[in-house]
Write a structure and sequence with these properties.
- It is a single chain.
- The chain is 13% helix and 28% strand.
- The chain binds a DNA duplex through strand 4, strand 5 and helix 4.
DNA sequence: GGTGTGATCGTA
DNA sequence: ACGATCACACCA
């Protein structure tokens, strides 16, 4: 019994900055788990030096070069996974990183995966925390969000008309673009706010 | 509240 | 070598 409309291919087949803003307040669902997205970052293709899609297609980033609406999960810092949504046209290699979300359902299942989390706000307030709480690893790399068990729904809550924005987090290249967006005043946004 | 640092390993 | 990070120590 879905509590909302599943986002279709057309939703994702738009420029990453558009999708990133429209994903705010949408609900990501994975089995019994559900969470409202409150923070995203857009990553471009060949023209964005910060993007994994900036370089040639490899085994790791291959999904980014595929059709939109698929999940791109990568491993980083020797211990963390992060989850993205592929956007734009095929071969464009653009994507949106899910950086933070507010738990909606399945908190009891998220807890053991995030033993360090003290409050509910610590369960999903960072890209690697989100992936960990949602149980996402490279096993899920390439899953189709339009037909598989992992999907994103709209439950009628609109994206903010004027979301807060900033530069992207944790980069050494492409630091100028203000391609991070988040829901203003949300308690579930990741800590540490760049300019 | 803030800043600094170690962990840990696949990818290029 | 270096990360699209996190947690914890320490200082204030």
């Amino acid at each position: 019994m879905p509590d909302g409309d599943v986002l279709g291919r057309d939703f994702y087949a738009r420029p990453a900055p558009v999708v990133a803003r429209q994903l705010l307040n949408k609900v990501m669902v994975h089995g019994e788990l559900a969470a409202r997205i409150v923070e995203t970052e857009a990553y471009g293709g060949a023209d964005d030096p910060a993007s994994h899609g900036h370089r040639r297609k490899t085994e790791r980033n291959g999904v980014m070069f595929g059709p939109p609406g698929h999940l791109y999960v990568y491993f980083t810092y020797g211990m963390h996974y992060c989850a993205c949504v592929v956007t734009g046209e095929e071969d464009e290699s653009s994507a949106v990183l899910i950086r933070a979300a507010e738990p909606v359902r399945g908190i009891e299942q998220m807890r053991p995966r995030r033993a360090k989390a003290r409050a509910d706000r610590d369960l999903l307030n960072g890209p690697a925390k989100f992936a960990q709480a949602f149980g996402l690893t490279t096993d899920h790399d390439g899953l189709d969000l339009c037909s598989d068990t992992i999907r994103i729904e709209s439950d009628g809550v609109a994206a903010p008309k004027r979301p807060a924005s900033s530069t992207r987090v944790g980069l050494t290249k492409g630091t100028k673009a203000r391609w991070r967006w988040f829901v203003r005043h949300s308690d579930f946004v990741s800590p540490g706010r760049p300019s």
